[in-house]
Amino acid sequence: MFxxxxxxxxxxxxxxxxxxxxxxxxxxxMGALHAGHISLIERAKTENDLAVCSIFxxxxxxxxxxxxxxxxxxxxxxCEMLLPMGCDIVFAPSAEEMYPSLPQLKMDFGTLETxxxxxxxxxxxxxxxxxxxxxxxxxxxxxAYFGLKDLQQVAVIRRMVQELSFDLEIIPCLTLRETxxxxxxxxxxxxxxxxxxxxxxIYKALNLAKEKxxxxxxxxxxxxxxxEYFAHNPEFERADFRMEYFEAADFDTLLPxxxxxxxxxxxxxxxAFLGGVRLIDNIVF
Length: 285
Ligand code: AMP
What we know:
alpha/beta, binds adenosine monophosphate, 2 domains, single chain, Pantoate--beta-alanine Ligase, Chain: A,domain 2
């Protein structure tokens, strides 16, 4: 496994591999890897000749400087996890390497970013769009793997690839969860033991909401039931739980829906702070 820190050595190596007919599967990450990331790497390796993983905590997608500062950075451990998975190349650039000067280009994803993450994290998807475009141009993958844990990110990247004619395929991958249901996330390591014990309730609330919609309850009634669910448990207050949004959306457009729509097209998405740590999760049914 090669670990490259510069764009030029990465491009030079990968260009030669592509000339030799090798296909490239790419997994962009911000590091602090867990089994969810590894499942993407495994899939990339199975479906391509080479698996490339980028590790870069992208400053331009953080709208909260404290979140950026506290984001876990564990490059050495990450590489130790990637090696036995058959990862071929780790691209781990510095911020200066990626941004010798701050990009002036702005990406606007229209209605895809006026809701949920886009609404609560202004500028986030501009940062994501720019960094992922740069990474695609550096790695030139045949396939790029993204987790559905970040449902809105998948929609944004798909639109970007389609509208800018990137010559690659986006592969959405299922969310990996801990045995108690909590979606794996690099941020979970920042949860206090009290917050960690409560965190699986987020997935439970998603399932409760799903059941309600499947039984014909409207979205407004469902949201009221979810608010009740959290309000009636004083432990949430003690753990400083604060819901940012709980939305029912169309899986393709991400626009709000009023009741369950076609099978596989209804997405329930949540963002909540638990003891100061921002967690997101979703289910699609
Ligand atoms: P991140 O490092 O958080 O930017 O994540 C890198 C990639 O891993 C993104 O495509 C995420 O959606 C994906 N990912 C994060 N958590 C999970 C998970 N629990 N299961 C599957 N994929 C995930």
